[in-house]
Amino acid sequence: MGKFVVIGERIHCISPVIREAMNSMNPEPILKRAKEQIDAGAGYLDVNIGPAESNGPQLMKWAVTTIQSAFDNFPLALDTANRAAIEAGLSVYNRSKGKPIINSADAGDRIGNIDLAAESGAIVLTLCSKAGVPADNDERMAYLQELLEHGMSLGLDAEDMWFDPLFLVIKGMQDKQTDVLDFLKMCKDMGLKTTGGLSNVSNGMPKHIRPIMDSAMVAMAIQCGLTSAIANPCDRRLMETIKSCDIIMNETLYADSYLDI
Amino acid sequence: MGKFVVIGERIHCISPVIREAMNSMNPEPILKRAKEQIDAGAGYLDVNIGPAESNGPQLMKWAVTTIQSAFDNFPLALDTANRAAIEAGLSVYNRSKGKPIINSADAGDRIGNIDLAAESGAIVLTLCSKAGVPADNDERMAYLQELLEHGMSLGLDAEDMWFDPLFLVIKGMQDKQTDVLDFLKMCKDMGLKTTGGLSNVSNGMPKHIRPIMDSAMVAMAIQCGLTSAIANPCDRRLMETIKSCDIIMNETLYADSYLDI
Q: Which residue in A244, A252, A261 has the most chain B C-beta atoms within 10 A of its own C-beta, making it the best mutation to test that interface?
């Protein structure tokens, strides 16, 4: 399936520094986080502007052009519930280094983002859910089928739909973790690409544990077929693990310097 | 399949300190390494006395009683090509904390160790090979069948045979790593227990990389069904990963202190 793709999650309006930068359209904090994540090995950068109800289109256009002009048209994931803002971002997005990603569609209110991806030739992250967390893998698979059929009926290539099983928090849903892994295997067997907010598994755990748990989970998930994650590429342990898994899966050739590449 | 079992590998005559201690029957260095490994979370301790051609039985008896009397009959794996030494070790082994492990049998010259396990009620590590590295999984599976049938014909319980797929060095056999993982899945599907010299994968890599690569591999292997490894429990990253995988697989209940338990 190719090398694992990390979609860097650190340009997110939930961060006070980024929110302030977005409010004032100050490029510096955003470009700083973009550079850190690119240097650390991100394959895409997620740009989450939140709902951005008042100025979404203007803000997303600004963010996309600001980041892409500073970093040689680095590929981005446009992340907002504001559809007009995604359309505006797509209108200025430069595809020379990769298709844009629309983050995200689901089988409920946001199914229209699949249509948008089909119309604009984008990749779309598709959550295998309608409202809330799917109860089990039967439900996940029912939503996946719905999403996949909808995309394919619109002429979207299956490999431009990256399915998100919804990673679950261990503190509270420990006994559901193997379900998520099993679901990734089913997706792999179907030849589908997958992604998700991996660090959700360690939500609420002590800070020193999170990189340890996330790294164990990513290795197990890659073994099950996970092809991408929305994650923090500045988490050194996580990136070391992902790069090592790429070696074990024979997706990149081993060299003693592989961790530095 | 229960919690992952680490068979601590550090009491090995290849270490100059241990060789000297075995030569002079000096308990201190051996007990020190036993304690370090038990404290770090080993489930078994491997006791490798080498071929020990001259004094094998005497040496193994001494090592077994020395370690078990100091550490409340901690369970051990008796590791030597000298069959008389294994028999001598078994004769003094105390089973109150777990069956002895015989390390190891194969489908070639050492198949008799399966008979010994059946006669003595021991667990036996069985290498899926005859002479050298199996060429592919068909060969691994042919040996596994041969070993399994031999053991079962002698009345040995299948769960007392821990099958070793032979982990391969990445530097030189990078493209064979997924074979090993696939083989572990087959063993899991058959309900069989598995083990192996995991750190062989990182053989020849720079020292700082080995715990990183071994940890990625162990997580992927546990996902595929690996139930045990002969490894260094004092490798902190490796043990953190194994404990995290046990949480993800729901084999131990999560607590914020799980890494310290």
A: A244
